[in-house]
Design a protein that fits this description.
It comes from Rhodopirellula baltica SH28. This protein has 7 helices and 16 strands. With 292 residues, the protein is α+β, with helices and mostly antiparallel strands. It folds into 3 domains: 142 residues, no CATH class; 61 residues, no CATH class; 81 residues, no CATH class. The strands form 3 sheets. Strands 1-10-9-6-7-8-5-4-3-2 form a 10-stranded mixed β-sheet. Strands 13-14-15-16 form a 4-stranded antiparallel β-sheet. Strands 11-12 form a two-stranded antiparallel ribbon. The longest helix is centred in the first third of the chain and has 11 residues.
């Protein structure tokens, strides 16, 4: 589920306020069968998935709160309306621990509203106990991050490729200086080109943020800065589930009139062979691809 949609989704479903208090580790004094430290995988809603006893639980972290989804057979949350619980949270290397009371939300996940906007990209250590979900509480530990919705400078440089003033490849004269214009960025090959961009920013922004990428293989186009927002929203390749940009400039494919981004040209064959499968995978994460 992409960052913007997930934030709105949680804001609409959370009705509880966080309660802060320092406390001992959640595991102190407990010895239950439904107790897990399992390594997490990616869940159907874009969170981390792990087995806790006989249950599959997906942890979804967004700017406005944290949800724990006890998943049913259709991969949707199925917590009883009276499920409650406790979340004990640490941020990064800090030893300070905060306690939050969990409740069942309108979407039948168990969660809490908490502002995480100040801890973007920091590891959250979570000890969780969920009660009223069976004969025993579900007790588990999980970790995760609220990932930044911004693309790295390295990927933006790859998308832009050349200096807007000199036309030289970015990086050919050392680290490219970055110029921020509103919510967009441009890079130049050297400090000497900075003043020209700052004097006529719209001229250069229009050139690079409307440019269409060249076709690198049949049906696969090279992404440009015009695709930056869509790449940031999609985040991962639907075929390999790898971060976009991790294997160079993402490819762009027309899938039933929608622009879908892939980590490498090699993923295009699978994407085109079964488009509905991969569009459904994106939809499950709350991602609606833009028009091609």
């Amino acid at each position: 589920m992409n960052f913007r949609n997930l934030t709105a989704f949680i804001a609409a479903t959370l009705f509880v306020s966080p309660q802060f208090a320092t406390a001992q580790d959640v595991h102190s004094g407990h010895d239950h069968a439904a107790h897990s430290h399992a390594t997490a995988a990616t869940g159907p809603h874009g969170g981390t998935l792990q087995a806790v006893g006989d249950h599959r639980i997906e942890t979804v972290i967004a700017e406005k709160g944290i949800m724990f989804m006890i998943l049913g057979k259709n991969d949707q949350p199925i917590a009883p309306p009276d499920a409650t619980g406790t979340l004990k949270l640490r941020v990064g290397d800090s030893e300070k621990e905060y306690t939050y009371q969990l409740k069942t939300l309108k979407n039948l996940a168990v969660g809490v509203g908490v502002d995480l906007s100040k801890v973007v990209d920091q590891t959250l250590h979570m000890n969780v106990e969920i009660t009223n979900v069976g004969s025993q509480p579900l007790i588990f530990h999980t970790m995760g991050k609220l990932a930044s919705s911004k693309l790295s400078d390295e990927l933006l440089i790859s998308l832009q490729a050349t200096c807007p003033v000199s036309g030289q490849p970015l990086g050919s004269m050392g680290k490219p200086p970055k110029i921020t214009i509103g919510d967009k960025s441009l890079f130049v090959c050297c400090a000497g080109c900075t003043k020209k961009v700052e004097a006529s920013p719209d001229q250069y922004l229009t050139k690079y943020y409307t440019a269409e990428g060249e076709q690198v293989r049949e049906g696969v186009f090279k992404s440009t800065l015009a695709d930056a927002a869509a790449i940031a929203a999609q985040k991962t390749c639907p075929v390999m589930d790898e971060p976009l940009g991790g294997m160079g400039v993402p490819g762009k494919v027309n899938v039933n009139g929608k622009a879908v981004y892939i980590c490498c040209p090699g993923c295009a064959k699978k994407l085109v062979a079964d488009p509905e499968k991969y569009l459904a995978a994106l939809k499950a994460k709350g991602i609606t691809p833009p028009a091609f």
